[in-house]
């Protein structure tokens, strides 16, 4: 039972007005209600299609949303996407806008406030959300395609979109149905962007109990998108146990202390720097999948194979923006070669234009063929992930009930959205492992092919293309930086064990 108290903006709310959102929201209810947010101060970022929480005053310089004002106006006029193709077209529009000044923004390395406002205005944060709350109602198949598309124009923003889609569905995987419902409503109605402080290579955040609350403390070296996020996913280990707790908290609070130290060679606009978590207090009722009375994890939610589905899901997020940025590299290189590369005059088989050079045609042909094959593999992997979620009763972030098909139209079948229950036991360890193995196949292909393409395009461009104004090296830098996230050699080993022994990958933070 939830009561929502909100200050609504003037005018009628509708799915076509992407700039609608709650100014203040407070969820209250009975003892077991999910009180994720009390009164939260927000800044009206109407130019960017959503509501932001004000960031700390000491944040570094950010990009100015005004640069995309014409795009904001355009998206506000256009119809809200209602099909996979329409969402793909919207993502393509965003990619093309981002590609126009991608080299300049990479060099400046500013906090991507304008870029996230652009993604918000386009509605891309809502792709997989329930239609009941203004979401797109699409599955992970569509989500992955859009991540791939945006990464063609700017890998950093494609990565941020992917992480947002993953974190925004966290409660659907490890929370109760009521928690998932409340979180989806809050995210969608405010058009909020989600960051996450969940780097498993660092020490776990420490969680202690304080009456009706839990308290998070610790430090994370990497916190992707945190500086520009409205909400942040926290995860840690509860004191005296080995049990993990996930929750979402408002980003704008004193205990969220960003170090503003992200300055890597690639993925420069992802704001993936360090953060200190200092005494952030959360109600026990907000611990995803935990019983607030017994203060214990709910076994039929957190002790089943489906509870670890966030891991292969995010691995496929990674591989999709790897592929997208490689496709973007080939697109940018092709345009340059067709218009600016000069033919080589000393080969004995001289051509009038570079596009007639046999070695240039051969290289482009090889890269294009491999990327096309990788694209097909990406779609198959996305279908497998979406099918596994459907077996449980999820279509993207929409709870549709076990056995529902991807053809649902209104986000639910019988009863109310919050009354439909998931069949988490439908996903066996074997089924989850087979999907993880297939995701590993694609991770290997996307990484290897992407590195070959992003480093190899220079052979068809010529020396002038190394000019800083073109910044063709950004594609390789982006892929090389993130592909070190977890060694692809271990994905090859997983694929090898699956091929030779039919052994599914062991569940880990990276599988």
TrEMBL record:
Domain Acyl-CoA dehydrogenase/oxidase N-terminal: residue ranges: 98-180
GO molecular function terms attached to this record: 3-methylbutanoyl-CoA dehydrogenase activity; flavin adenine dinucleotide binding
Keyword Oxidoreductase recorded: yes
InterPro entries: Acyl-CoA_DH_C, Acyl-CoA_Oxase/DH_mid-dom_sf, AcylCo_DH-like_C, AcylCoA_DH/ox_N, AcylCoA_DH/ox_N_sf, AcylCoA_DH/oxidase_NM_dom_sf
Ranges that cross the membrane: none
GO biological process entries: L-leucine catabolic process
Alphabetical keyword list: Flavoprotein, Oxidoreductase
Origin: domain of life: Eukaryota
Domain Acyl-CoA dehydrogenase C-terminal stretches: 428-485
Keyword Flavoprotein in record: yes
Annotated protein name in UniProt: Uncharacterized protein
Lineage summary: Eukaryota, Fungi, Dikarya, Ascomycota, Pezizomycotina
